[in-house]
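2024-03-11 09:14:02 DEBUG pipeline.ingest accepted 1 chain
2024-03-11 09:14:02 DEBUG pipeline.ingest length=118
2024-03-11 09:14:03 DEBUG pipeline.predict start
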Amino acid sequence: MSDDKKTPEGRTPSLRDRMRPAEFVGMSAVLALFVGLIVLLSTREPLLALVFFGVAFIVTLVVIALFVLGSKPDEDERQDLAEQNHEHPELPDAGAHRPTDGPTADGSGPTAPRNPHD
């Protein structure tokens, strides 16, 4: 396998990861084909069936993508995300100290930005 298929993190995505977008497009195409055939058999107008096929394809693709975005990651995905975060030391850790909006108790630390309209 060549190095051009590696992600910026340096790992090669699995076949399942690479085929996931094709699965979504395939599911959308099957549902759109079903809608197109129903319209074609009902109206006997190919142009109308083609329009319904296109609309159904786009709508199902968007709905599937929204469902995927809204799903929670399982344990394998959480572990993969944690590994990716550890490969980048410049990313802040979840437990790291985060700066506050105002100065800290000892007077050090960031202050709130000055309002330019004052």
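2024-03-11 09:14:41 DEBUG pipeline.report Residues 15-43 form the longest helix (29 residues).
2024-03-11 09:14:41 DEBUG pipeline.predict end
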